[in-house]
Amino acid sequence: MNKSVFLGALTVAGLMASGASADTLQEVRDRGAVNCGISTGLVGFASQDANGDWQGFDVAVCRAVAAAVFGDPTAVNFNPVTNQVRFEVLNSGEIDMLARNTTWTFSRDVDLKLEFTGINYYDGQGFMVPRALGVSSATELDGARVCIQKGTTTELNLADFFRANNINFEPVPISTAAEAQQQYLAEACDVYTTDASGLAATRAAFETPGDHVVLPEIISKEPLGPLVRHGDSEWGDIVRWSLNALIAAEELGVTSANVDELAAGTDNPEINRLLGTEGNLGEMLGLSADWAANVIKAGGNYGEIFETHIGENTPIGLARGLNAQWTEGGLLYSPPFR
Predict the structure, then answer these.
(1) Which of 107, 143, 207, 224 has its CA 20 to 30 A from that of 254?
(2) What backbone phi and psi angles, to 5 degrees, belong to 171?
(3) 156 by DSSP, 3-state: which?
(4) Could you please report the per-residue DSSP string of 121-143?
(5) How many angstroms separate the CA atoms of 79 and 57, rounded?
(6) What is the rounded CA–CA span in Å between residue 27 and residue 21?
(7) Which helix (H) or strand (E) holds 29?
């Protein structure tokens, strides 16, 4: 069920017919798949392989939710959406959740009536320039042409940073990561700015990545995570706790390789509650007792997913950093499964 649909402009009538459903879970079950919004293409996070199948860090979140609901991580319709329409597409009801490098902010949460269900990547905005430019700091970019995606937090952060440092710049607006890469390589801009993880993914796709450098400045906090509609609390709980299951599983040592063995019962009560051998957490969500075990089987725990798609041994080459478990000096932990 790897159906790819590019969602473009939405009609006013479609938007007016939107709103959170009181029973999104039932709608998803009746449909037989989760409609999940993802990036239009960002290597490591959401991109299509040679067979046309979607793969990546954000894609894995969609598959985890499908596994929680259906016990089948392939029960997903992937819907690539641009920055300009992603929130309208979610609020219209055309997708059930959005999992595409979206920053949790006050206005998106409160004014746009969206509900973030957690943070799956702690990021920050950075800058990439050609090594030949000879620039070692973002403070040296006075007068630079800067490629920036419209409708993103990076647009506002960029203006704030340059104003605070009394630096002038010329914005070169682009719509997608693919367009940013094309314009940057065509020298239509001197600098590309976006989340540091996105810069790493873009740079990894270049023919000669070493010809480009990511500058040391990180100018913002960009907590990225999946989101649902306001008022869709029951469905939001499923998305939220599917993500938490991935995070908790890593901390507890539950992996795709040992989950079946541990699901038979352990001496650790939290593992037992997570995997459904004790308590009734699945029932509280309206899911089967083994919902979290199915989430972990889909692609592994959080650490396995990270290392598979964007870790240091991949072309993206990201270190865990702030995305390490709290026990390892990072910010990552799940609320208790209790």
Answers:
(1) 224
(2) -75, 140
(3) helix
(4) EEE-EEEEEEGGG---SGGG-TT
(5) 15
(6) 9
(7) helix 24-31
CA distances from 131 to 161, 222, 277 (A): 22, 25, 55
C-alpha to C-alpha distance for 211 and 59, rounded to whole angstroms = 29
Instruction: Answer whether 279's CB lies under 8 Å from 273's CB.
Output: yes
Cβ neighbours for 258, distance < 8 A, ≥ 6 positions apart: none
First to last CA, the chain: 34
Q: Which of 120, 109, 336, 101 is nearest to 243 (CA)?
A: 120
Tokens linked to 139: 């403070």
- Neighbouring-strand partners of residue 46: 42
Residue 32 phi/psi, 5-degree rounding, is 90, 10
Residues facing 149 on adjacent strands: 174
